[in-house]
Write a structure and sequence with these properties.
This protein is an alpha/beta fold. It is built from six helices and six strands. α3 links the parallel β2 and β3.
Length: 179
Amino acid sequence: MTRLTWICSGATEANRQARFPLDESLEEKATVEARTLAPGLRRADRVFASPALRARQTAEALGLDPVVTPELSDCDYGRWAGRSIAEIEANELAAWMSDPQATPHGGESIATLCARVEAWMDGQLTLGGHVLAISHAPVLRAAILVTLRAPSASFWRVDAEPLSTLQMTSNGTRWSLRI
């Protein structure tokens, strides 16, 4: 059996300002909050993190030394990176949120994000042991959709708070949510 624990990276200024993130550092409060979570983490056989600074800093605050893994990167927001939601053309944002294949920002579609996350999860499926993955809210959302075989259009019906955790298990053939 493989146990997969997802940890959402801590909050950044972009979270507080409703901006699409750049590669920015954690807020000091998020670093402190992550340190308080560390004692409750189960020992892991493998630890991975997104290359984003906020994910690596979350791992560091948790006392972990992860393998940096591009497949765990946040969604590529293209030209929207660093911009607030209010600055984005309403029609473009609506198109992206209503069509999982859309890329009005020149970045990554939700469908492509889900496929990337699914490929990484498939690689962990039969390895056994406990895996920790520090990533981002969109990646955790995608992992849930992949596990439930839910349509990509369901992406916006899932929310993941900074430093939230998500548990999954695998019997070697499929993933299951663990609550």
